[in-house]
């Protein structure tokens, strides 16, 4: 069996380092807001090429705290519109709602599964306060085009970088490509903790300061509360684990890219549409998504060949009950992609035999 993402094997790549980091925290007796969080925040901000990193509880809260902080600062109007992709994980939309804002969907391009300048420009209104671009599957959204579109408009350009740790556009990494970015360190992400974790990254000192307070009971000093905040903190254990994993993120992203190249060169089956790599560095291959008109039969074929695949995502947010009253009903590209997409195994612990098995199964698929 070729598993989709065997977390034990991926974590075993770090040998004893994870246990040693956890033991250090255990012995310190400090589990919240000690030196580990600060150290990781400094290292991750530097890695991204941004001024500040604020560790939070998870990726959803990284995005919602980011938006709430802008509202708090008066730089996003309460109830205003935030443009999000129609084909993202629902957390992107939920974050907008949690911040008291209104999601407006922009359709992706069929080829890249990413929004484009044209699709975003179609849904901008006088009420738009921000565009929250998603680097879906690990490939950066066309941030330079979006920046050009929004120049002089006062509309913020934000990143949902939950799938794109280390991805870059012309040498600038995710986290430094817009005004602010939210990251998830969910265990299955390219940089994953051993539980829930996330971070907001920005070079805006004022935003970072408000976010840090909002995520810590609205407090910058113990028992002094200026804001009605929440509790969304990165903890010492996760920060220590993340610091170990960050050391090898680039190496592991390169291994993912190597596997992706082998898939792109080896899979030759007209029934599968393969993803585009973009320019070097643009894609960190969190997910290798192929598309097929015969997706369900293809999934069954992989399963019969002993290969586990997943679907990201089977139903777009606007068709979920949670967004039953969402006014945009006509989002055909998101709906088509949801029916055709299939994610093949890709992770840094994959063996050559496993890679060959995936390629072989993809090439032996016949139309049902
Ligand atoms: C994983 C993910 C999130 C949410 O992160 P959590 O840590 O699971 O809350 C948000 N957006 C995208 C695109 C994601 O893939």
State the distance separating the first and last CA atoms.
Answer: 23 Å
Q: Tell me about the largest β-sheet.
A: 7 strands, mixed
State the helicity in percent bands. 25-40%
Uncertain runs are none
Kindly state the number of beta strands: 13
Order of helices and strands: HHHEHEHEHEHEEEEEHEEHHEHHEH
Please report which band the strand proportion falls in: under 5%, 5-15%, 15-25%, 25-35%, 35-45% or over 45%. 5-15%
Structural notes for this entry:
- The chain has helices at residues 7-12, 17-28, 35-48, 59-72, 91-98, 117-123, 143-150, 205-214, 236-246, 249-266, 295-304, 332-340, 352-363; strands spanning 52-56, 81-85, 102-106, 128-134, 156-160, 168-169, 172-173, 180-184, 198-202, 219-221, 224-225, 288-291, 341-344.
- By secondary structure, the chain is of the alpha/beta class.
- Strand 10 (219-221) and strand 11 (224-225) form a beta hairpin.
- Helix 3 (35-48) packs parallel to helix 9 (236-246), helix 4 (59-72) crosses helix 8 and helix 10 (249-266) packs parallel to helix 13.
- It binds pyridoxal-5'-phosphate (PLP).
- Pyridoxal-5'-phosphate is lined by residues 58-60, 88-89, 91-92, 134, 160, 162-163, 184, 186, 196, 198.
Short description:
The chain is α/β, with parallel strands linked by helices and 368 residues long. It has helices at 7-12, 17-28, 35-48, 59-72, 91-98, 117-123, 143-150, 205-214, 236-246, 249-266, 295-304, 332-340, 352-363, and strands spanning 52-56, 81-85, 102-106, 128-134, 156-160, 168-169, 172-173, 180-184, 198-202, 219-221, 224-225, 288-291, 341-344.
